[in-house]
Amino acid sequence: MSVKTNEIDLELYIIRHGQTYGNLGKSTEGASFADIHDPVLTPKGQRQAQLLGERFRNYPFDAIFASGLRRAMHTATFVAENQPGNGSHNIIVHPLLSENGGKEEDYTGLTFAEAKEMFPRIRLADGYSENDRIISFTSGWDDYRQLDRAQKVIEHIRNRYTNGAKVAVVAHAAFNTFLFLSSLGLDPTKLIFDPHFLNTGVTKIVFFKEGTGRYDMDVQLVYQNDLSHLYAEFPEYGLEPCYF
Q1: Which of 5, 92, 96, 131 is buried deepest, with most CB atoms within 10 A?
Q2: pLDDT digits (tens, 9 = 90+) for 82-113
Q3: pLDDT per residue over 39-48, tens digit each?
C-alpha cells in the first residue's frame, strides 16, 4: 500500500504589527494628522517586533510582505533585519494589505519615496509604480468586498511563491481576519468564532500541492495568533485573556 506524500506548495505566515499608540486608546489631542491616521509603534511595540524578528532569525523567508502603513512596515523591518543569510532582507509593500476602512479625503498615506526614506528595505509589489498610493481606502466596504481584496493578495502571493516557499505577511488585525478567511475558504457572514489577532501574533497556514494535502485537504491551519515569542518578557500574553 503506497503512502501519499504531502507536498507543501506554500507556507504562509500572517502577522499583525506591534503595539501602536492607536492601540492604547489614548486621547489624540495634540497628535499630528499622520499620527492619528497612521500611528507608529510604541516602545513596547518595537520590542514586540524585535522579539518577532528574533523568533525567525534562523528561519529564512522567501518573501516578506507588509502594508504601506508605518506600523506594518516598521514591524516587518525587524523581521527582515533578523533574517539569516539565505532569507529575505527586503520588504514588499502591497497596497491591498492596508487596514480595513479609511477615506482618501481623511489620509492619503505616505508616498513611496517618503516611505522608502523611513524604511530603506521596502520595494513595491509587482504591478505597482512609485507614483501609486501605497495604501488602499475601503471605508464602507462590506465583508465580501474585503474578502475579495484579501483573495487578490493571496492569489498574488500564490502565483509567485511555490514549491515549499515561505512567505510572511505583516498587516493589521481586521484585514488579517479576511486573509485568514480567504486562505481557508470560509464565509465571513457564517462564522461562529472570532479568529482575533493580537500584536505580533503569528498565524501559520500551509497550502499543499493539489491532491497531496493531509486528509485529502490541501489547506491546513497549523496555528493561529501564536505569541510564544513574547511570553518570556510579557508573560501576561500567555496567562491572561487579552483582547486588545
Answers
A1: 92
A2: 999 999 999 999 999 999 998 988 889 999 99
A3: 999 999 999 9
Type of residue at 127: G
pTM greater than 0.85: yes
Residue 32 lies in a domain: yes
What's the CATH code of the domain at 215? 3.40.50.1240
d(CA 41, CA 43): 7
